[in-house]
Amino acid sequence: MTTFTHYINGNWMTSNHHDTITVENPATKETIATTPSGTAEETRQAVQAARSAFGSWSQTPASERAGYLSRIADLFEQNKDHLARTLTEENGKVPALSEAEVDTAVDYFRYMAGWARKYEGEILNSDRSNENIFVMKKPIGVIGGIIPWNFPIFIFARKVAPALLTGCTAVIKPAQATPVTAGEMMKLIHSIGLPEGVLNIVYGKGSTVGNTLAKHESIGMVSMTGSKPAGTAVMEAAAQTMTKVNLELGGKAPAIVTKHADLDTAVENIYQSRTINNGQACTNAERVYVHEDVAEAFTKRITEKMKQATYGNPLQDSDADIGPLVGQEQLDSVTNMVNEAVKAGAFVETGGTPAENTDGYYFEPTVLSNVTQDMNVIQQEIFGPVLPIVTFQTMDEVIEKSNDTEYGLSSSIFSENMHEIMKAVNGLEFGETFVNRENFEAIQGFHAGRKQSGIGGADGRHGLEEHLETHVVYMQYKDDIQ
What keywords tag this UniProt record (predicted)? Predict the structure, then answer.
């Protein structure tokens, strides 16, 4: 069993109290690590370290800051097997997905490093003679980064890379369920000689560490990926100091399958979208709307596909399609939602219950038909390998049903008809729409939600600029120079 300590101001800091958080392998329920349950004072200490480091780090040339990012990427790549295995052990991902997540993090650090000489300000024409208006882009300050448990390596990269590249410093709070990867990544980052205080890690509860970050007067932006209730708490805390928030708060992604869809494409991609990370991905298809003309054929084929999905301990069965859910709370939530839907009239095509004869938190790959729009499996996040299906008749109807949610993160449509696709793209109220493909965003795009799926966004140039603030300078000069 591994014991981790906070990383503050370039040092591993033993907590000054005895409260700890245990981390378990969700495939076996065995304890694999412990971390301190950080205090508000420890969090403030980390923020102060980051604030003290900000002055010199923000004045370091961006190309030099990019060099650190490139070295981090190299180290992550060299230690890919270790990081991926650690991720599988604490999160339950199948090995191939863990390896892909490390690869994406490596790519992310390198991509952001490439922006060092590219992001820029502007010079505007003035209304006065002998004056120029400079629009300068400066780092926003200390970033408080709150990491979720479902993609702890990738989201670490998403929070850290643009922050450091733009000259910000950061304090990171890993998720309670998956802090081990953050500790292992920080060990690697420590070895490159990053200046003290530039990057700090404080373990603990969101109600303590996250709340302290959000309301601290020295935080320039708090960036959180997580649940809507957690995001609401962050906003309320940040309002006390008018701190900028950047929030991704989950989704309820619709997948539309029209009568002109290529069913092979739709079945394969929706299957992948529903089973990746054991169904625990906020961008991926949480509900499927199928045109009544192809509903029977689609349901039969997706059910057969889900029946063939295998589940097991990812560290022992590398060929398993699905691993465990992250913990007992998540397993109970998925079970209750499915039971509630069945009681209300949904029909179980396959699955429907927690998996038997396993040691961990497994739920059977599940397809539900005869589902109605008012059921919670359509309205609220499931976050498990459960696929509810609703039929529709017209494009107007399905767009209205798709938009009938408090969330607005991602969506998808499967059709070979351009007119259907364009009508959906222009009518869907979501930050992303994926056409005839899986729901997974590109790092050079912009990942952002609408409605209650969040504020701000990440990735690409627009995500980078979230970490910058604008400073306008009105520069007068004399014309009669001697």
Answer: Oxidoreductase
- DSSP annotation of 357: S
Instruction: Return d(Cα 360, Cα 26) in angstroms, integer.
Output: 5
The C-alpha atoms of residue 213 and residue 246 are separated, in whole angstroms, by: 13
Question: Is 144:221 a contact under the CB 8 Å cutoff?
Answer: yes
Tokens of 170: 């950061």
Task: Name the nearest CA neighbour of 71 among 188, 151, 169.
Answer: 188
- Tens of pLDDT, residues 194-246: 999 999 999 999 999 999 999 999 999 999 999 999 999 999 999 999 999 99
Residue type, 177: A
Q: 245 pairs with which residues across the strands?
A: 222
pTM of the predicted protein model = 0.97
| Contact yes or no for 159/35 (Cβ under 8 A) | no
Tokens representing 43? 């969090």
Q: Could you read off the pLDDT of 9-59 as tens digits, one per residue?
A: 999 998 777 789 999 999 999 999 999 999 999 999 999 999 999 999 999
**Phi, psi of 444, rounded to the nearest 5 degrees:** -95, 0
Instruction: Work out the burial of residue 44: count CB atoms within 10 Å of its CB; fewer than 13 is exposed, 13-18 middle, 19 or more buried.
Output: middle
Question: Among all residues, which ones are annotated catalytic?
Answer: 248
Which domains occur in the chain, in start order? Answer: 2-249+453-472 (3.40.605.10), 254-435 (3.40.309.10)
β-pairing, 20-25 with 30-36? antiparallel
Residue 276 DSSP symbol: G
Q: How far is the C-alpha of 137 from the C-alpha of 81, rounded, in Å?
A: 38
Pair of tokens at residue 260: 């002109």
CB 360 within 8 A of CB 324: yes
Sheet holding 122-125, edge to edge: 122-125, 131-139, 468-476
